[in-house]
User: Fold this.
Amino acid sequence: MIPDIALGGPADSARRIERGHSSAAFTHLLLVLAWRDIRVRYKQSLLGIGWAVLHPLSMMLIFTFVFTRAFPGSAAFAGGIPYPLYVYSGLVPWTLLAGGLSGCVMSLVGNRNLVTKVYFAREVLPLSCLASSLADCLIAGTVLFGLMGYYHLSGEYSFSVRITVLLLPLVLCIQLALVAGLGMLLAMANLFYRDVRQVVGVAVQLWMFISGVVVPVPGDGSLFSAFVRLNPMVAVIAAYRACLFDGDRLDMFGLAIAAAQAATILAGGWVLFRKASHRFAECI
Amino acid sequence: MDKPAVQLDRVSKRFRIAEHRVPLLQRIGRWTGIGRGDASAANWFWALRDVSLAVLPGEAVGVIGPNGAGKSTILKLLAGILRPDGGRVAVSGRTAALIEIGAGFHGDLTGRENVFLNGAILGMSRREIRAKLDSIVAFAGLERFLDMPVKRYSSGMYARLGFSIAAHVDPDVLLVDEVLSVGDALFRLRCLDRMRELVRNGAALVFITHDLDQMQSICRRAVVLEGGAVAFSGSPRQAVEHYLGAMTRSYVARPADVGACGGVGAVELAAFRVGAPNDPRGNWITSGQCAEATLELRLARKMDDLVVELNLRGPCSDGLISFNSGRSGARFAAAAGGVRIGLSLPALPLAGGQYFWSVRAWDRDRGICELDTPYGFPMFIDDGGKATGSLCLVHAWSFASAPKSSDREDLMMASSDEVATSRGVPHEALHLR
Assistant:
């Protein structure tokens, strides 16, 4: 049963338009669009979905070369974890953020014919980009477990499976909320100023180096370190490692703050996105 | 079922004319009050102004009008893509909008994959699409090409698949915007059939098209939009007459256009007049009376065999009669310069309404069209309300009391036999005999 829906005039802009798009249809469309992204990204490519693994893996090799061969011994910060594992465990969630944001930022502008010709809840476009990045990230993640198995069997570093592994989905959810909120904001901003896309590319790279992906963030109590720790990704990346490896203790307080930040960004991004979405077709 | 499925209540919509991405410095200037003030009303364009329209379930309404009249804006408002700047838009039920066929198709995906993609975009569930896949493909006639990437489809195949998916949404409200022009004639007929079927099943249809015959064959009501406002609302035929009349008036109103006609151009139309001789009403003619058409041509060169054709079109742009000097056996050998050609019609038995004359001229020796007036010159026929249709032929009626009941039964049986043997005699004709 589809209820009668009134599309508001300017007077009742607070009324939401749902128009027969139940949450099931929303989810279905989101998954289909994510599937389209993945399918199109790896179509007519020899390695196909292998690129989802090769990309973080090659980054891992580069950073491993820098920190263990070019400047030997400089990777002591890894806290006993083999450096390739240390950096790969940071790179995998980072590809979710970087891939998700670069997809989201173009998700409205790149689907201009959908935005101007078909009605559906616009959130689907950035969120489906995020979903396709998540798929890439999960595939790359399986290789992480392969690497861990390799180091364990070769005796270089032994793992003990701990109960904190169960917290991984929670950390992932916090990260997804953060990227979804930012993604919606950036998709919208790029609609009005195409510069956003260029800025995002550079900013994400810089962000990686102050999030503890490649090298840990300074924890010396300086002003810079306090500033860097405003960044929720520091706690998120650290939490992934703490759940997987024995080295660090899980900083529940830091993670809770990151979760609150992510929830705020998601809620704010979503509200703004909805408020502006009826203008998208005109402004695109 | 009296509640409208689609309702526009004094809806207005404006768009910004100036590019809204003002340079950043200028925008900062505006914010801080140093620069120029905000955009004035002159920077806005009202695409729609106070437009009201209601469509009941099971009703088909056509929207016609010149380019830029606001037709597509109405559809986008109904689809929810745009939001009005004034008034209210209310739509109830599941809506399928065909504003662009195959919007959201991805060229790298196969036809089958695109059915699932496009179906999801149009709001169909996975199970629904799977159940209808065969029917969608059969309707589009693309069984053989289902696993080919759509980037290799011809534009007709692309359009057929797009329409077929949208036609299977089973909407309560179907919005169609000038999308049937790509398919071939047969596919277009099938699309119209499908649209009729949806309307019969209770869907409300809003149909935008420039194909006036197509519109009249589907819609029971039509709206003419001009400059963002409803100029006429009523029966499709009257709407078409209104629309074509307005279009022709705006064309004929500019005398310069008489000379600016198509064709290669060695013949120029200097003047055109039609009317009853010595009638001060100009191009008003009483049905059945004599009429004369006179045209003055300017020839750029000498022509030994000039052929002139006068075409008469009806109120709905349908071609009625063609007068061709060559076929009539007249031979015009003209020197370069001006000539005057007349066509005399002792009786013009047309039904009342507005008609249009258009002129063509050939130099038969060269075989190319030298002159072709695109729209035509209006002529009004006054028949005193005696006839509808195109012609007002001389006729007489007879009247007598009905035959006895036993005779009538014979007649009824005869008539049903006639129909059964498909001889095409209408039932009523027998009663009127």
